[in-house]
Amino acid sequence: MLFSQNNTRGEEPKRSFADRLKGGPNAKEKDTGKVATIDMYRFITLERDTTYLDTALTVEREYSHNYLRRDLFGLLAFPNEGQAYNTLQYSLTQHTPFPEMGFKAKHFNFLEANQIRYASVATPVTELYFKSILARGHSVDSFFAVNLSPNLNLSIAYKGLRSEGKYINELASTGSFRFMMSYNTTSKRYLIKSHFTSQDALNEENGGITTNNDFESEDAKFKNRQRLQVYLTDAESFLRAKRFFVDHIFRVNPNAAANNLYVTHQFNFENKFYRYNQPTLLSSVGTRNVYRFGDAIVTSNLSDQTHYNKMYNKAGLVYENTTLGKFQFFIDDFRSNFYYNRILILDEGVIPSVLSRNINNVGGQYEYWKNKWHGRFLLSKAISKQTISNIEAKLDYNLNEDFQFVFGYQNISKLPNDIYNLYQSEYENYNWSNNFANEKINIISGEAVTPWLDGSMQIATLTDHVYFENKSADNSQQLISPNQFGGTIKYLSLKLSKEITFGKFALNNTVLYQKVDQSQAVLNVPDLVVRNTFYFSNYFFQRALFVQTGITFNYFTKYYANEYNPVIGEFFVQQQKQIGNYPNFDFFFNAKIQRTRVYIKAEHFNSAYTGNNFYSSPSYPFRDMAIRFGVIWNFFN
Fold first, then answer.
1. Position 34 confidence tier, pLDDT thresholds 50, 70, 90
2. Residue 70 has what pLDDT?
3. pLDDT for res 134
4. Which residues of 271-300 are buried (b: 16+ CB within 10 A; e: fewer)?
5. Residues β-bridged to residue 338
6. What is the 3-state secondary structure (H, E, C) of 429-469?
7. pLDDT band per the 50, 70, 90 thresholds, residue 33
8. In whole angstroms, what separates CA 300 from the centre of its chain?
9. Residues 6+ apart with CB under 8 A from 151
10. φ and ψ at 476, to 5 degrees?
């Protein structure tokens, strides 16, 4: 839907629709037409990156026409929509110094505060999204934005999914409500961005198939995936999150000048809740009965509940000089509680009921714009008992529209997510209280856009990396516990993209190479990930209809993929089964009429001909062939 462009302060600010109709102080600035142009429909992130409403039909729009509404290269979807994604590209992982709740496998569809976009539109605009799913259900996303005045913009959005899936007990039902507001005074002395989100995800959990040989045998009776035996037939997980967020800035001097002084404040309050229910604890593997997650303190109706809340305040003072750039000094306060309703006294020790964080940082940030250069440098360090630190540097150089370069560096010492240090469960092996050391991460990255090739590179070193592992020697059991690798992991990724066009045909290529150097197999990724799309584009019926059709090939080399555990909603390291080295072909036929785009796709259409060796994780097969229909409709008032 959108293309990204950095918003540099050196550019003239975009005028509101009302301002453009009135014209400027000079008569030459007047716009005689009263039709809003596309650059008057903007969407701005917290970091002031700006995108414009784009109703074009391109291969990039084809890649992002999915449940997450973004390009899924580097992610491997699970059998049903609304489930987890296995990570093929580790460099997609974002690092922040503050600890998060955890349950990361359940958060792929959850929008964080820095992912919310605030509208600045000339007239009311609506976008409606629909896509059919696997088996019964639907996937929808609707967005509406309106400018009540040139200075006040409101938007509301809701994304919902219900998908039954093709395997036993894998229904997914999710919802995401967002309300956004942005306001500024006419003089731009005061600006505020605020939003409220309410997000939830309900998943039936089947624990994966019990017998891979049944799936791989290609026996005709197992073409109905409901006949494949799964570990869990009545378990489910539920994650709910609500957030209220405010970011505002006030200029001390009444009028903008060459030297400006600002006071800033940011407030973020979140409340989360995770529940795992499993009425029947005993699982069947062929004729054998097993307890998938070990012994429990109850015989039935197991229910684990985890609560989390977070409050974050950041206050800053900014000095801006139009020649020297921006100097910001800030102090922040981070408070969180990860808690249960009981204290456990076990033979191994006491498991407390709460893990509380109280972290205070001081820091500074420098931002600079000069011609084609844009740089941002940040340094922060905790002054509280719980220590964290973060050094970030980012430098953009835009030579022209054809050549753009980005260089980045990050040195971070972060607290592990809370789930690594505390967890309580009615499963005996899922109770722990730890005090892991900070994770230390160094990242050097670079990106380049040229007429010949687009590329990105990341070199990272990870020390004291935390992860989950399975302590059971029996593959039918998952006795998961957290661990910390005291050594150093070295990671390299190189991603290259190039589209070759010849007439009305095009070949879009993306290749990712990854290399990991480690003394223990903790960080596992495929060496090679490839995507190639060969497609045809053309207008028909006197350019009233635009059509784009083609075939996409996806592939990654074999590797020991992480396995999914529903009790903790996380992936864990395993060394028993490799997945990968199978081709995946999709056929698509997309069309655009005015501002309506229609998507028809045959996903994984080769699944019946290339063998049943396709997996999302060792116990979860990848999706079979499915024909899906979708539409995106933009309209304006």
1. low
2. 94
3. 84
4. ebbbebebeebebebeeeebebbbebeeee
5. 308, 355
6. CCCEECCCCCEEEEEEEEEEECCCCEEEEEEEEEEEEEEEE
7. low
8. 35
9. 16, 183, 184, 185, 186
10. -85, -5
* Measured distance CA(551)–CA(553) in Å, rounded: 7
State the amino acid at position 599 in one-letter form.
Answer: Y
pTM score of the predicted model? 0.90
Cα–Cα distance for residue pair 614/267, rounded to 1 Å = 45
Dihedral (Cα; 531, 534, 540, 544), 10-degree rounding:
10
**8 A C-beta contact, residue 574 and residue 474:** no
The pLDDT of residue 30 is above 60: no
Residues counted in the chain: 637
Q: Residue 59: name the closest of 604, 501, 595, 582 by CA.
A: 501
Tell me the average pLDDT across 6-30: 41
The DSSP element (H or E) to which 408 belongs, if any, is strand 404-414
| Residue 217: Cβ within 10 Å count | 12
Q: How far apart are CA 239 and CA 292, in angstroms?
A: 22
pLDDT in tens, 519-576: 999 999 999 999 999 999 999 999 999 999 999 999 999 999 999 999 999 999 999 9
Q: Letter for the amino acid at 311?
A: M
Write down the residue that tokens 């000089």 correspond to.
Answer: 321
Task: Name residue 565's beta-bridge partners.
Answer: 570
CA angle, 530 as apex, 524 and 533 as ends, to 5°?
155
CB 396 within 8 A of CB 404: yes
Query: DSSP letters along 249-287, please?
Result: EEESSSS--SEEEEEEEEEEEEEEEEEEEES--EEEETT
Contact 115, 38 (CB under 8 A): no
Mean pLDDT calculated for residue range 166-170: 95
- The pLDDT of residue 4 is 39
pLDDT at 397: 94
- The span from the CA of 88 to the CA of 516, in Å, is 13
Distance CA 99, CA 109 (A): 19
How far apart, in whole angstroms, are the C-alpha atoms of residue 15 and residue 4? 19
Cα angle for residues 621, 623, 629 (degrees, 5° grid): 165
Q: Token match 């296995």: residue?
A: 86
pLDDT digits (tens, 9 = 90+) for 177-211: 999 999 999 999 999 999 999 999 999 999 999 99
Q: How far is CA 178 from the centre of its chain?
A: 16
Q: Which residues have C-beta within 8 Å of that of residue 296, sequence separation ≥ 6?
A: 281, 302, 426, 427, 428
The neighbour count for residue 350, using CB atoms within 10 Å, is 10
Q: Give the span between the Cα atoms of 597 and 126, in whole angstroms.
A: 14
Smallest CA-to-CA distance from 600 within 165, 67, 62 is with 62
Give the pLDDT score at 3. 37
The answer to whether 621 touches 584, Cβ cutoff 8 Å, is no
The pLDDT of residue 258: 92
The predicted pLDDT at position 350 comes to 92
For the stretch 175-193, what's the b/e string if a residue is b when 16 or more beta carbons lie within 10 angstroms of its beta carbon?
bbebebbbbbeeeebebbb
Give residues with Cβ within 8 angstroms of 51, minimum separation 6: 2, 3, 4, 5, 42, 43, 117
CA dist 636 and 424 (Å) reads 51
| pLDDT value, residue 371 | 86
Residue 239 has pLDDT above 70, yes or no: yes
Average pLDDT of the chain to the nearest whole number: 92
- Angle, CA of 316, 318 and 324, to the nearest 5°: 150
d(CA 569, CA 25): 59
